[in-house]
Design a protein that fits this description.
Blueprint (H helix, E strand, L loop, with lengths): L6 E6 L5 H13 L3 E6 L9 H8 L3 E2 L5 H6 L2 H6 L3 E7 L1 H9 L5 H8 L4 E5 L3 H5 L1 H12 L3 E2 L3 E4 L5 E5 L3 H13 L8 E6 L3 E3 L5 E3 L5 H12 L3 E6 L11 E4 L3 H11 L4 E4 L6 E3 L20 E3 L3 H6 L8 E8 L3 H12 L3 E6 L10 E2 L1 E5 L3 E3 L3 E2 H26 L1
Parallel strand pairs: 1-2, 1-4, 2-3, 4-5, 5-6, 9-12, 9-14, 12-13, 14-17, 17-18
Antiparallel strand pairs: 7-8, 10-11, 15-16, 18-20, 19-22, 20-21
Bound molecules: cytidine-5'-monophosphate (C5P).
Length: 409
């Protein structure tokens, strides 16, 4: 699942290679990508909108002048919401429209209106590919940073032989994966992040919970995904959206969170940012507990919840290479955080002093990074910036460790 959560806009233009776009679409989805499709009028001469819609599991966009399409998902949104626009096959005509900035139909207008990276897989007759006009257009597009995939050489559908065959779908998928991995220092790594509170039921409508907005954990999940890691975020009940590019699993209780974490292993990195309730009610009532003047308030017997961080850090076979916990302390921050490193068996602790400032639900955070070797105080910063800096520390950790392994191994 190398494209998990990636949003790709696939533009299928006219040419016999359009039939291969169906296989391409299937393979992109198999890698976890969310694919929206534009099918040009030419493309629809070769494959049907129905097959594209069935494979993408979304409606197909075809018409710039469709009132329905434009009100539901206009061409501007279509062009901006994708992480990547992939044109496959890219016909000589569409390439020319792109080179000249024409906006004649939905595909060319979307491409002109977009600020997203574009990759194209040209497909055409070898003479059309060799034509000076096409050569100049391709050069223009390359100068603008549009990435070419293929075309390859071989026998064409028209019987001629030469360069102009659309690259095979698996090669296009490889190029797309490569695109997403460039400048991604954590590419190939997998991460598990817990976030938010847990809710432990007293009865079907009442619960015990912790204060946690989930902002820091969600920001970390997003930062790791931006750095190229495949991220599973296991989140308790929060009021913030799922981060982009991350597989999010929603849970309610600590036991559900532990089970989801165990299912997400093996992973290279585990970060436990969730505020897990330490206790749960021993026998949660199956029906709403009645209150009344004559009824005594219920007595709750609490029992210990599993310590998810410790379970992950002490996993006999699937312990991640780097396990990071959080500590919210009100006093003796360093001493308590060091004790927590030992007790939990984790590698790093991110500690904050909740006694000094109200960090719950705030946008900013003031933290210390405590490892077995040293302690760093980080300046007060937004939770997004802290997440990004933590991503950099994690990258350095793997760079140094892998370098050490190469030296000794
Ligand atoms: O023990 P304490 O709650 O202070 O430790 C905080 C760290 O342990 C956090 O990283 C939190 O996510 C994790 N934790 C956990 N499961 C628990 C309690 C805490 O994973 N039941």
């Amino acid at each position: 699942m190398m494209l998990r959560g990636k949003k790709i806009l696939l533009i299928i233009s006219g040419g016999i290679a359009a039939y291969k776009a169906l296989d391409l679409l299937r393979q992109l989805k198999k890698q976890g990508a969310q694919v929206r499709c534009i099918l040009t009028r030419g493309g629809s001469q070769f494959i049907t909108p129905m097959s594209v819609a069935s494979l993408s599991e979304r409606e197909v966009h075809m018409d710039l002048w469709s009132l329905k399409d434009e009100t539901e998902m206009g061409h501007i949104r279509l062009s901006r919401e994708a992480d990547l626009i992939l044109v496959a096959p890219a016909s000589a005509n569409l390439i020319a429209q792109m080179a000249y900035g024409l906006a004649e139909d939905l595909a060319s207008t979307t491409l002109l209106a977009s600020n997203r990276p574009v990759m194209i897989a040209p497909a055409m007759n070898p003479m059309m590919w060799e034509n000076a006009a096409t050569r100049e257009n391709i050069e223009t597009l390359e100068k603008r940073g549009i990435q070419m995939i293929g075309p390859s050489s071989g026998e064409m559908a028209c019987g001629e032989t030469g360069q102009g065959r659309m690259s095979e779908p698996e090669n296009i998928v490889k190029a797309v994966i490569h695109h997403f991995q460039a400048d991604k220092p954590l590419a190939g790594k997998t991460a598990l992040v817990t976030s938010g509170p847990t809710h432990e039921p007293i009865d079907p409508v009442r619960f015990i919970g912790n204060r946690s907005s989930g902002k820091q954990g969600h920001a970390i999940a997003r930062a790791l995904a931006d750095a190229g890691s495949a991220v599973t975020l296991i989140s308790g009940p929060v009021n913030i959206p799922d981060p982009e590019g991350v597989e999010t699993i929603q849970v309610q209780t600590a036991q559900e969170m532990l089970e989801a974490c165990q299912n997400a292993l093996p992973a290279d990195i585990a970060i436990c940012a969730a505020a897990v309730a330490d206790w749960r009610v021993e026998n949660a009532a199956r029906h709403k507990i009645k209150k009344g003047k004559d009824l005594a308030p219920p007595a709750l017997t609490l029992i210990q919840n599993p310590d998810i961080l410790r379970e992950i850090a002490s996993h006999p076979t699937k312990r991640p290479a780097l396990v990071i916990g959080f500590a919210a302390e009100t006093e003796n921050l360093e001493q308590n955080a060091r004790a927590k490193l030992q007790k939990k068996g984790c590698d790093w602790i991110i500690a904050n002093n909740v006694g000094m400032e109200d960090i719950f639900g705030a946008q900013e955070n003031h933290v210390y990074l405590i490892t077995h070797k040293n302690i760093q105080e980080w300046p007060k910063a937004s939770k997004e910036n802290i997440a990004r800096d933590l991503g950099l520390e994690i990258t350095n950790y793997f760079l140094n460790n892998e370098f050490e392994t190469r030296k000794t191994g």
